[in-house]
Structures are given as C-alpha cells and as structure tokens.
C-alpha cells in the first residue's frame, strides 16, 4: 500500500531570516509522500522573494551529503499562496487547508524546523491508532533566533525521554486546566480538522480553540520523542498576551472559554475552566484591559467560581488602578532568573 499523503501547510509572515531552514526541513524528510503548501500572509520583508528563489532552485540549494538517503524530491509540486492583505494565522491556514489533499496535516510556522524523520515516525504511529485519535504530538527542543538550544518543552533524561508524565488519550480536562501541548509538534487527522470547520477565523490565534473542540470528541496520542525545533523569537504572537496595548488574544481566549463552558458536562471540567478564567482575569487586570476583567468575571459568575481575590481585582479595575509597569518589571526579573538557572 502507498504511504498516506501528508500535507505540510507552512505559514509565513515576515520570516525572511528563518523560512529557508523551515522549508529545507520539509525537503529533507525521510518520508516521501509529502504535499507542501506555503502561505505567505502579506509579509512586508523579503520573505516572498526568498520563498520563490527556494522553490525555483530546490536541487541547487542542497549538497550531496544532505540529499543522500533523503526524499528530497517531493512527489507534488509545492503550492505557494501569496496573500495581498494580512489575513491572520487562522484564515491563512484555512486557505491552505482548502486545497490540502493529505490524510494528515502539519501546521508549520516558517520559523520552526522539522527533524528529518519526524513525518515518517508520526505517520507510523498514527497509522497504528484507531480513528478516535485526531492528534499525535511530541516533545520539542526550543531554540533561539540564532538556532542555539535553550531547553526542552518537556525536560528529558539521558535517554531523551520525558521526565514528566504527559497527558494523552482523553485530554479535554487537561486542555482546560493548563498549557501542555507544543503546537509545533502536532500532526492532525485531516478529516477531524475539516469536521470542525478548520480554524475559527474570528479568533486571533488557533491552538487553544482547536484543542478544546477536538479533545471533546477525539483522543490525543503523545509520542515521547523530540521531533521539532521550536523557535523562540522576540515579539512573537504569544507575547501579545502580556502587552498593555491592543490584545486580541485575550478577547479570543474569552470566546473559547465560552465555547468550553457550553461543551462542559461535569463539575471537574467546570472547575478546570474556572481556574483558567481566573488566571486570565488577573492577566487582563495586570495588562490594563479593564473591560475584559469584567467579561471574565461574568463567566466566573456563571461557573459559580468568584472569589475574594477576583472581587478585589474587579473593584480595582472599576477604579482603573494601573499596575502594568510593576507586572512588566516582574516578568523581566522572572525571565532573567530563568535564563540564569537554565
């Protein structure tokens, strides 16, 4: 039987420094049946030109050593979608999803890097699982902008295995409770992704909503290997959570919380959700998004989970007490200590 087709949707926005390495990590996979779809979301740097040069000159850009025993020639010509206006991650990804033909899909940010055997290993695992599984995910090594190793997503032992127990199977309550899945490592079952309508284009980011909706109905499988190098960059999409300026991520998170509230079926799930709502209420206060403090508090009331602390924060928010710069300094000190202890 022919190996199943895997669609890699590579999203690029101002990634001129990193996109070549990301694309080459797809070309150098040990797995052969890959469909590459590149979506540039109206980059204003040199990303488009660089991508076009890579696609025009794939073979010349590699060495004999790199191509040895590698499936360098993709069976399908890469597709390149160039948005004329910035659409945001969710809409840009869905443009690629519309034309994707693979049984499985990888959402690849153009600053991340796939290890050479990632797709081969993940397909092998996925093919051994029943259809109740919608996602395979794994460990990752975090790298900085220069490509230096920072740390591992899950700390590893000498054998490279995770030192912590990673949730798998029915992970819905865990998804509500905390962030533990490295999005960059996921391989998704295409039919499950399409069944939920792709990414919600009304949101500013995709992963939390995807986890909530799919984990309610499907199972997740953890692969205890490092398969991906995740790039940690300044001014990343996730860093917007902690800014005191316009913060669409907090608004999107609130939308997903309400979706989860409708999906919840047990007190344990409501408790897990209330903890996350409380955390984001505090974050909205620290970053001076006072209207969102009230909105998160409204949901806590529905969950019957207001506390003296949240009531105090609501009172401070009504009086527009600003603490952002104290919070900003706290985060800088925390990052400094984390760097020293690494």
The number of E-state strands comes to 9
The run of helices and strands is EHEHHEHEEHEEHEHHEHHHHH
Approximate strand percentage: 15-25%
- The assigned structural class equals alpha/beta
Largest sheet geometry? 9 strands, mixed
Q: How much helicity do the residues have?
A: 40-55%
> Which parts are unreliable, with pLDDT below 50 for 5 consecutive residues or more?
59-72
**Which geometry do the CA atoms define?**
globular
Summarize the structure in words.
This protein has 342 residues and is of the alpha/beta class. 42% of the residues lie in helices and 17% in strands. Strands 1, 2, 3, 4, 5, 6, 7, 8 and 9 form a nine-stranded mixed beta sheet that branches. Strand 1, helix 1 and strand 2 (34-40) form a beta-alpha-beta unit. It is globular. It starts with 5 loop residues before the first strand and ends with a helix.
């Amino acid at each position: 039987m022919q190996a199943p087709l895997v669609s890699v949707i590579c999203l690029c926005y101002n990634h001129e420094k990193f996109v070549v390495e990301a694309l080459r990590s797809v070309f150098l996979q040990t797995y052969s049946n890959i469909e590459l779809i590149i979506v540039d979301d109206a980059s204003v740097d040199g990303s488009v030109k660089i991508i076009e040069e890579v696609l025009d000159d794939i073979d010349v850009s590699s060495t004999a050593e790199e191509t040895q025993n590698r499936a360098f020639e993709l069976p399908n010509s890469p597709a390149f979608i160039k948005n004329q206006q910035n659409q945001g991650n969710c809409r840009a990804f869905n443009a690629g999803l519309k034309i994707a033909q693979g049984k499985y899909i990888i959402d690849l940010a153009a600053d991340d890097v796939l290890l050479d055997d990632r797709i081969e290993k993940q397909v092998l695992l996925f093919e051994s699982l029943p259809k109740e599984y919608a996602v395979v995910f794994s460990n990752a090594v975090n790298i900085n902008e220069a490509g230096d190793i920072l740390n591992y997503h899950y700390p590893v032992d000498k054998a490279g295995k995770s030192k912590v127990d990673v949730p798998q199977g029915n992970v819905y309550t865990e998804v509500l409770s905390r962030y533990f899945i490295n999005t960059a490592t996921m391989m998704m079952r295409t039919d499950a992704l399409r069944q939920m309508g792709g990414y919600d284009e009304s949101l500013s980011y995709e992963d939390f909503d995807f986890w909530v909706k799919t984990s309610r109905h499907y199972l997740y499988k953890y692969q205890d290997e490092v398969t991906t190098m995740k790039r940690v960059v300044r001014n990343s999409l996730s860093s917007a959570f902690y800014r005191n300026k316009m913060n669409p991520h907090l608004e999107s998170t609130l939308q997903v919380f309400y979706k989860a509230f409708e999906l919840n079926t047990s007190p344990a799930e409501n408790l897990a959700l209330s903890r996350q709502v409380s955390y984001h209420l505090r974050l909205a206060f620290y970053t001076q998004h006072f209207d969102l403090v009230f909105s998160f508090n409204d949901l806590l009331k529905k969950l019957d989970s207001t506390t003296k602390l949240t009531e105090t924060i609501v009172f401070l928010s009504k009086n527009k007490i600003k603490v952002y710069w104290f919070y900003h300094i706290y985060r800088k000190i925390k990052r400094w200590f984390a760097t020293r202890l690494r």
